[in-house]
Amino acid sequence: MDYDLTADQKLFRATTREFLEKEMPLTRVRELADSGVGFEPDWWRRGSELGWNSMIVDPAAGGDSISGEGLVDTCIVAEEMGRLVSPGPLLGTNLVAAALSEAANAADHAGVISALMAGEAVASWAVYEPRRGWSPWTPMVQATADGPDYVLSGVKDRVEAGDQADYFLVTAAGPDGLMQFIVPAAAPGVTVTAEQSLDLVRRYARVDMDGVRLPGTSVVSPAGSAQTAVNRQVQIAVALQCAETAGTIQRVFEFTVQWAFDRYSFGRPLASYQALKHRFADMKLWLEACQATASAAAHAAARQADEADELASVAKSYVGQRATDIIQDCVQMHGGIGVTWEHDIHLYLRRATVNRAMFGTPSEHRRRLADILGV
Amino acid sequence: MTEHATAAGPAGLEDVESFRLRARVWLAENMPRLVPGQNDSLEAMMQRGDAIWPRARELQRLLYDGGFAGICFPREYGGLGLTRAHQQAFNEECAGYEMPLALNTPTFSICGATVLDMASEEQKRQHLPAVIRGDEIMVQFLSEPRGGSDLAGVTTRATRDGDVFILNGSKIWSSGAYAADWALCLARTDWEAPKHRGMTMFLLKVHQPGIEIKRIKQVNGNNEFCQEFFDDVVVPASNVVGEVNGGWAVASRQLFHERNAVGGGSPYVSGGLGPPRRGPGTHALIDMVRATGQSDDGYVRELVAEAHAISRVQQQLISRVTDGMRTQQLPPPAAAIMRLFAGQGSTRLAEIGVEILGSHAVVSAGEAPGGHGGVVPPGGNKDGRGLDYGLSFLMRQAGSLGGGSTEMARNIISERVLGMPREYAADRDVPFSQVRQGR
Predict the structure, then answer these.
(1) How much is the pTM?
(2) What interface predicted TM-score (ipTM) does this complex get?
(3) Residues of A with Cβ-Cβ distance to B304 under 8 angstroms
């Protein structure tokens, strides 16, 4: 995270770190994985009491940030979760709560927003579709108008925390173009099927919608404004994701440097070999650069700056690639133990690899960046 | 993040936005504008030949008279005593104007900064105001023909003779020495002390009896680099910077400023946006993509985006590392992190340039002087700008060499930022006269 956090942000970071280290150490993450559980609702509710889900919600809808840049504050949580590869629907819940609170009809969503902020309900952005890459602006799910109602049909997949979510924010092709709807998981016609994930505790699901009938109030982004809303959600998703990845590489780098001091070969610590020192120097550079660009993307999105779309794609294209480079190098520094189930490093590599791929790969973000630059 | 510009600056200082607006008005009324489309990088300017130096002095004098010179230098030495945020605002306003970029490095960002930190009050008063007025151009006499990275192994000899020192030896890789007035020159004064404890830093007049300057032509035709030969050069003892035999402390500070400058983090760099870069930026690259009909090529589009991302991340990294050093969460050697990024980044940018331009980077339209197509003609390549990318590629490694090699940067990061064990040095704590010397 930034080197110039405010005193309040530092306090918040310390509180969050303490809670996570006590309540969700890596041993506990492994237990959840073994029992096939994504996260425990009660744990999520208690974490939410620290303010995890209320900082990017519009103040008019009850949101409250620490620094005035709520997304940056939420990135502190994401980064701490990255350090411990924590479970929990932080990204989806925050993204959906923010989108609902910024909707023209935010008042219609007040109940859902409150439940999300309190950690009593969980939401996720249903944006990927089967056999397609990252194309949030051109969904195949159809929304048909029927009197005052809309009827949704189609399939979403790779929906984060899909099997534990209470609400989905669904991108759909409406009669006049791109729209977004808030869809209760319990609505008739919605079928949720768990998918397999590379991450041990971040689970995904497929969401089939077969003639799901929704009232007009469930529109979050009407045609015309949905494009901007989706862009903003991409900014938020990328900022939170890059902050989390920054946390994972920070932690992996810390314990790998320590390993280099503690591990001896030929009577010398690994840290004394120039061939390895130079690799650590490169990793330190990439780590600082990842932190820098992740932070810049978060600040730009928080301020809703003109360059927020651009900086999101800059950050994702850089962090996505470099973070996994760093962790793979750290696996190499560990030797054979680095590719065992026993060693924790694979938990981090899993998280960073999933984050690299989701919400746009580095390549997909370079293509978007080329569009933004007007190549 | 960068130091945020606030409405009310630090006590007593003009706030950044008011300074910015004042600069905007003044620049529009006083500074010459660049021809639209003209490549305003320092590298492009350097190709205009020796005339760049007197022009830089004129432009600097213009800035000085207008009250916009030495923005981050203290007021008592002729500067404005303002903050990095003011300098940044000024740099943003300078786009489109002809600026004295040649004075930034090493004169302001390395030599001036080192004089400010390490020189005596009298030396500061003699040199800094002159530097800020554009009357004095400075150069570094550090590297020697026998040693690149092993700077502390200098063998240029300074022998005391009453009130003066007599210098003999040679220095090399000094940019623009032929046009400079004063040098910071590191020489050995005690051959029986271990190497770091027997050096002294001098302020040396560049043009004086006993100094011969030879220019070195680089592969792109640039001949700014120089080698100097000292034959019984006389330097007054009052020109010693810091302590006699304490030159390494001065040189270390100088190296810090050099890493900062090369990495793009110096507050004394004025008039240029962003870090120093090799080769043209994103917009020029997009123009070339269009000119070569590759706008619809997905791979080329990704390469342009990658090049742009490298430049943005470099700026973001500079802000972050600068914040880290300012708040003492990173030690000063962390400036090497910025330096290493500059090397890696410029390497990749050079690769991307030739990858996109392809054959246009190696054969271009336009007449080459004397049949030598491998150098940039005076005034730059007018018709064949593709060749600029080929030339940048030929010079690719310069970005990983100048200002301390990236290997040295990696040593510094691992040893002095991460605290890993120092490399074995055969000359540690050995009298320098007994240290084995190669060729």
Answers:
(1) 0.91
(2) 0.96
(3) 370, 373, 375
